[in-house]
Amino acid sequence: MRFSTTTTASLLVSTAAAFSDSSPLVLFSTSKYDPTWTPLASPSCMLTSSPTRLSIPAGETSQLQSTSRALHTTHDILASCPTSRYVLISQPNVHASDLRNPQSGLCHSANLCAAVDNKAVRGRYDVAEVVGDDISIDGLSSYIKAACAEQGRKEPPVVEEHLLEALPTQKGEARATKLAENDVEVGDILSGVRASNGGDDDYTVIYFSSPHSSSAVYYESEYVESAAIQMELKRRTGDVVVLDRRAGNASDSSAPLFVKYQFFTPGIFMGIVALIIILSLLYVGLSAVASLEVSYGAFDKENGPAAQKKNI
């Protein structure tokens, strides 16, 4: 979904509604991006206070995006196979408020924030609120390998997959402690990447959350939905409902008659049974009345019972 510049700016207001099923996505790379893209300064960068030098298409800087939209932009960035090494870090159950305090802006993941602010990093892309289906680490890995193969690289890219321990579902000291422990592991991973390259900065890091825990976690979102966004979502939702109904009507019109309609329902069956019983009783009653026989002599005054009594 594309939002206007005004709508995007409204997302930067601190605190508000809760998205228990959303998660952040952070991508940073030491490679320059495609120069045909329009460079955009994004002051809404989630992990750094300085404007990012990320080059991404216009309309893709919203901090509230669906999974499909965020993945679409990520795939666009990775399509050119910008580096020879890729580090995929999956942190289940993490939210944007875990990485940065919404009020103070203090970063809770020191190693991750330091890696993003590293002078070797030339491009950054992050989304604080990714809402929708989980991001597959295997899917990202497969896409990177396929993209680099299409670019005709002589050597296949090195893709590292790291799945961190899930954060506790309840907010508190245990959750903060586990996040700090995992951040140390993130620091070790990134230090190893830089060391393995022999000082040659040629890597791309993607930090995301997948999968979500079945237990809901309540937290305060860093970005608030403005009235414009709510109206846009309602309008688009209404369009989807109308399209679904039209599609349903179109499919029903070509269906057989006995598939579209139910002619023999339980109510109709009970009605038929009751009608049969009533008609049977009516038939018996009419048959009994019709079987009665009375002689015509009973109505004759001369030969009837009254005349016989008089003669006696």
Automatic annotation (TrEMBL):
GO terms for biological process: (1->6)-beta-D-glucan biosynthetic process; cell wall organization; fungal-type cell wall biogenesis. Keywords: Cell wall biogenesis/degradation, Endoplasmic reticulum, Membrane, Signal, Transmembrane, Transmembrane helix. The chain crosses the membrane at residues 263-286. It comes from the Eukaryota. The keyword Cell wall biogenesis/degradation applies. It is found in: Endoplasmic reticulum membrane. This is Protein BIG1.
